[in-house]
Amino acid sequence: QRRVIAAHAAVDRARATADVAMRTDARLQQLLARGVATAQQVDDSRAQRDASRSVVEETEAQLANVEAQARNITLARQQLDTLQAERALAERQRDELMITLGKFAL
């Protein structure tokens, strides 16, 4: 559960960073059109924007993986609970059969 929460937080941080990068890039493109920013600044902001988008995609994939693992763990725990209940039932049935066998063995 903690890993899922941490993965959600990582996605949120990545999205926030990407949002800032996108806004910065848009602003610099406007400044370039007015001759205030340089082409290099716009190129750098585009690279940052693209990199931040990649980080968002990566963290979203990691989140999906962590959520899948959490579901698998939950399923495995449920299966374990079921198997433990079946074992307890089998042990009770064995004990009853041993008592019945003891009655007829006399």
Structure report:
- The mean pLDDT is 96.
- The chain is 93% helix and 0% strand.
- The chain contains two helices and no strands.
- It is mostly helical and 106 residues long.
- The two termini are 57 Å apart.
- Helix 1 runs antiparallel to helix 2.
Task: Summarize the SSE layout with pairings.
Layout: H1 2-33, H2 39-105
Helix pairs in contact: 1-2
For this entry, give a set of tags.
single chain; 106 residues
Proportion of strand residues? under 5%
| Mass-distribution shape | rod-shaped
Number of helices: 2
Query: What's the order of the H and E elements?
Result: HH
Helix fraction by DSSP (H/I, runs of at least 4):
over 70%
**Largest β-sheet summary:** none
Distance between the termini: 57 Å
Name the poorly predicted regions.
none
Mean pLDDT: 96
Tell me the structural class: mainly alpha
Q: What radius of gyration results from the CA coordinates?
A: 30 Å
